[in-house]
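Thread: Newbie trying to understand structure tokens

Hi all, I'm a second-year student working on a class project, and my supervisor (Dr. K.) asked me to get a predicted structure for one chain before our next meeting. I've only ever worked with sequences, so writing a 3D structure as a token string is new to me. If someone could post the tokens and maybe explain what I'm looking at, I'd be very grateful. Here's the chain:
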Amino acid sequence: MRTRIVAVDGPGGAGKSTLAQRLTEALGGAQIVTTDDFACWSNPLEWWPRVVEEVLEPLARGERSRYRCSRWRPDQPEEWKEVAPAEFVVLEGVSASRAAFQPYLTYSIWIDTPRDVRLQRGLVRDGEEARGQWEEWMAQEDAYVAHERPHERADAVIRGDPA
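---
Reply by user tm_fold:
Sure, no problem. This is what the structure looks like when written as tokens:
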């Protein structure tokens, strides 16, 4: 692949978006594809075939990718995004380094952050009324981590908490 894909993975609220933004700047303005564009509250983890088909395979062929973003709210307008082949693309989000993506990844980073810190960050962003959704989401993330063990195959594991 001419486009090198760098995955930034970790559970919700771990600090993935912050690291991805810093990484893209360090890589000279690399594009970011976020798994949040594919996931939604009702489908937090099983959207991944679309990433392979609509993003990773076209980039592997040296082609532009185009995909429709998920809607997190019923009133959210439809949005399409494109990603051009480039030297680097950052794939950021929950399960960004899943086994199905491995053939396309150049490097993967796992962000390890305590559960209480992650939940607090999520509630600050989404509001206390989202607590039930966050707790359900976190349980599904726990199942992903237990099954796929992404931290074990990561090229780097970093802490996402202030400590």
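A couple of things are worth pointing out once you decode it. The CA atoms of residues 117 and 134 lie 12 Å apart. The longest strand covers residues 105-112. Feel free to ask follow-ups in this thread.
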